[in-house]
Amino acid sequence: MDKHELEAAIEGILFTFGEAVEPSKIAKALDVDKKEIIDTIEDMKARWEEEGRGVVISEIDGAYQMCTSANIYEYLINIAKQPRKAQLTDVLLETLSIIAYKQPITKSEIEKIRGVSCDHAVSKLVEYSLVTELGRLDAPGRPMLFGTTEEFLRSFGVSSLDELPAPTPELLEEFKEEAENEIKLDVGGE
């Protein structure tokens, strides 16, 4: 095994294990002398630090581990702070559709249309910045009103709510049939 192959093998082992690995285990796995493993790792450590790489090799109680360089912690924190891409489930899409077409709308109005609680769905849509609180309805209990955001428009490639597709009578009939079939399944399954 030449030096390049040895370094590649050590790098792969340290990367894959993600925890400290004793040089004796690496030596046994690669059928190489333990001293040659230690010398190669020490050379790699020095070269990687000199090159300012994003990962370093650290020695921990006589074993070696690949770690993130302290120089890039700031970048890791910045990426960890970025919001995750929204995963819109069928429930979220259904709730979002109701809000988009009926806004401003309260949770109880959404629940009346959907027939189930919508707290989680609305919370997720607010978290994803697709829906926002628009204020409160002037009614007993002053329920919160919800509507879509500019992020919603950007995400769905429309410049205004007027560009949302209008449901056709055929599509409404199809939705009605689907809802009736779901009701039959629910009643039949009980």
Main features:
three-stranded antiparallel sheet; 190 residues; Arc Repressor Mutant, subunit A; 2 domains; 5 strands; 9 helices; single chain
Describe the structure.
The chain is of the alpha+beta class. It folds into two domains: 71 residues, Winged helix-like DNA-binding domain superfamily/Winged helix DNA-binding domain (Arc Repressor Mutant, subunit A), CATH 1.10.10; 100 residues, Arc Repressor Mutant, subunit A (Orthogonal Bundle), CATH 1.10.10. Helices cover 56% and strands 13% of the residues. It contains nine helices and five strands. The strands form two sheets. It has a three-stranded antiparallel β-sheet with strand order 3-5-4. A two-stranded antiparallel sheet has the order 1-2. Helix 1 crosses helix 3, helix 2 packs across helix 3 and helix 5 crosses helix 7. The longest helix is centred in the last third of the chain and has 21 residues. The protein is elongated. It starts with a helix and ends with a helix.
Q: What is the fourth-level CATH superfamily of the largest domain?
A: Winged helix-like DNA-binding domain superfamily/Winged helix DNA-binding domain
Helix fraction bin: 55-70%
What does the largest sheet look like? 3 strands, antiparallel
Q: What is the count of distinct domains? A: 2
The fraction of residues assigned to DSSP E strands is 5-15%
Low-confidence stretches: none
What is the alpha-carbon Rg in Å? 29 Å
Work out the helix count: 9
CATH class of the largest domain: Mainly Alpha
- Which term fits the overall shape? elongated
Structural class: alpha+beta
Widest sheet: strand ordering: 3-5-4
